Amino acid sequence: MKLVYSPPSPFVRKVTTLIHHVGLNDRIELINVKTTALSVAEKARAANPLGKIPVMILEDGKSMFDSRVITRYLDELAGSNLYPKHNIYDILTLEALADGIMESAVSITYESKLRPKNEQSESWMDAQWSKVVHAVKALNDRKFQAMDEELNMGQIAVACSLGYLDFRHDGRQWRNGNSNLASWYEGMMKLPALIKTIPTD
Fold this sequence. Notes:
- By secondary structure, the chain is an alpha+beta fold.
- 54% of the residues lie in helices and 6% in strands.
- The longest helix has 27 residues, at 88-114.
């Protein structure tokens, strides 16, 4: 199997964290590409018509995307039970919230890095950050039961989303007023697989 990926992506990090955690490293070849919303890597486009990463290329040549599809597939393959059936919808909802944080944060990154300064919309970026703020507060207030259960994919996704906020938007200081979530994240970052996948440019 092959994974078309780029280390800075939080969606990629969800997948690579799972790969490290369940010990699938030797079975998956990593294909590193440089890709953005404005300049899509050819290998990413060839594997996914949308040009988005991550993309898993299976042994039969078929492609699989997006990150939530890939992580469920790999979880079943490894038998790691990061999507336990007894609370699967709680976990999927938590993962969807984390993905929403990622989407808004990545959108801000694209707006600030890919568009000329005179074309950037501060109000649009503020609106995206508002989504992040509300999501982070809900996590801090423990409104999601799956946050406090055994390690699951929703928790890993949340950790990856918060890691991306540190990586690209540290100046916005998501920890302010969210001490519960900050403490939870500090504990999560002791997971070896998350340490191995800390994003870099």
